[in-house]
Amino acid sequence: MSREQRAQIDAMLRQPRPETPGSVEEIRAGFRALMARMIVPGGIRTSGTTLGGRPALRVEPESGPRAGTILYFHGGGWVVGSPETALSLTGHLVTRTGFGAYSVEYRLAPEHPFPAAVEDTLDAYRALLDSGEDPSAIVFAGDSAGGGLAVTTCLAARDAGLPLPAAIVAFSPGVDATRTGESMTTKEGIDPVFTRESLDHTGAMYLAGADPHQPLLSPAVLADLTGFPPLLIQVGGNEMLLDDSTRLATRARAAGVDVVLEVTADVPHVFQAFAGVLDEADESLDRAALFLTQRVRAGQTAHTSAA
After folding, report:
1. Among the listed residues 52, 72, 46, 37, the one whose alpha carbon sits nearest the alpha carbon of residue 275
2. Is 112 one of the annotated active-site residues of the chain?
3. Sheet of strand 259-264: strand arrangement
4. How would you classify the pairing of strands 69-73 and 100-104?
5. Which residue in the list 119, 183, 245, 269 is annotated as catalytic?
6. pLDDT tens-digit readout, 251-263
7. Is 201 among the residues known to form the active site?
8. What is the DSSP secondary structure assignment for residue 142, as one 8-state letter?
9. Which one from 103, 144, 183, 284 is the annotated catalytic residue?
10. CA-based angle 202:13:6, to the nearest 5?
11. How confident is the model at residue 69 (pLDDT cuts 50, 70, 90)?
12. What are the domain boundaries of the chain?
């Protein structure tokens, strides 16, 4: 346990902020500045591409990828963020697994509210399948809002009759737009990232009046997860969104899904982004990479055996 590291990160995240939320552009600029401080690993190469009609960032090991594809969805409350702001996370997964990744630049609210993001991520997955990629070699991963999209894209794919990916990894996923988890109250003030006001502010932009009581907005409390692939959820113990993860895991387990829930004490939202600074971040990414490589290997073995 790295008490000093955790305390330093908590203090950094608690630096004074404006009393009222800024404009959308100000919020986006602040998020870009924060994520630019994260460590992007060496040994990767990136290139711009398109996937499903949307811009995407291709991330590969410099030595070339092994068989397997990560479809990554960045965080940012469905309002901020990009493949570039998530590059530390995507890059660390790529270097640890050896897989190539596509990080999708889905449309953001308030310009493009729900369900635009889910439509874009589903189109990206469909494009991978249409290009001949084997679903047993595709995994979904994402952080925060993107962790939520990893879940809801899988829901949308299943409901569209598409084959599902081999696995899902969700870092601190946002999966309850109803905001009814107890941690919304018990972790307020403990969470160095969010306040109820900040969550409501960006949440309202994404909802744009939509009822949050529907599976694609609140899968942790409303979705039928039957048939889902193995799911790894990693979350910090200091998060207001902690119960998004715990209730999603409970719901997945009840649906017969193989699910692993990891709650790391005294760390903030998407603590994995602090890889290279926080020991727990590196350890969690190691476990996430192992989970993904095992699932892809198992899927490919099963596929070969059935052929």
Report:
1. 37
2. no
3. 44-51, 54-61, 100-104, 69-73, 138-143, 167-171, 231-236, 259-264
4. parallel
5. 269
6. 999 999 999 999 9
7. no
8. E
9. 144
10. 130
11. very high
12. 3-302
**Both structure tokens of 277:** 């600074």
Distance of alpha carbon 74 from alpha carbon 116, whole angstroms: 15
Q: Which of 31, 1, 39 is nearest to 13 (CA)?
A: 31
Q: In this structure, are residues 57 and 105 in contact, taking their beta carbons and an 8 Å threshold? A: yes
Token representation of residue 86: 């998530």
Beta-strand ranges (E) seen in the chain are 44-51, 54-61, 69-73, 100-104, 138-143, 167-171, 231-236, 259-264
pLDDT digit string (tens) for 103-127?
Answer: 999 999 999 999 999 999 999 999 9
Q: Among residues 74, 82, 119, 239, which one is catalytic?
A: 239
Kindly state which CATH superfamily the domain 3-302 is placed in: Alpha/Beta hydrolase fold, catalytic domain (3.40.50.1820)
Residue 53 has pLDDT above 70, yes or no: yes
Give the total residue count for the chain.
307
